[in-house]
Fold this sequence. Notes:
There is one protein chain. This protein is an alpha+beta fold. It has one domain. A 4-stranded mixed beta sheet has the order 1-2-4-3, with helices on one face. α1 crosses α2. The protein is globular and about 35 Å long. It starts with a strand and ends in a 10-residue tail after the last helix. The model has no long low-confidence stretch (mean pLDDT 94). The protein binds zinc ion (ZN). The site of zinc ion (ZN) has 4 residues, from α1 and α2.
Amino acid sequence: MIVNLLGKHWDLQFCKKLPRLSDGRQARGWCDHPDSTGKTIKIRDGMSDFDTLRTLIHECQHGADWTRDEDFIDRFADDLAVIMELCGWKRVPKED
Ligand SMILES: [Zn+2]
């Protein structure tokens, strides 16, 4: 699906496999640079709803502000996901 972040568009995909990180773990998410063509945001399929939410928040922050510090993005995504869960937000399976 095509998603919009501050006037730029990414193809948001849920994928079984994502690239390996430098420490060997498989990434939970991936966001292409906002100025690249054909850019994608990829979210690993099959994670818990909470991990999917925080990964979506994390990767969308990269798209919105590529210069933002990784530690800030990670902490903010975790905190916002917890707040949303406390407020009752939960994933509802999408019907095709
Ligand atoms: Zn990141």
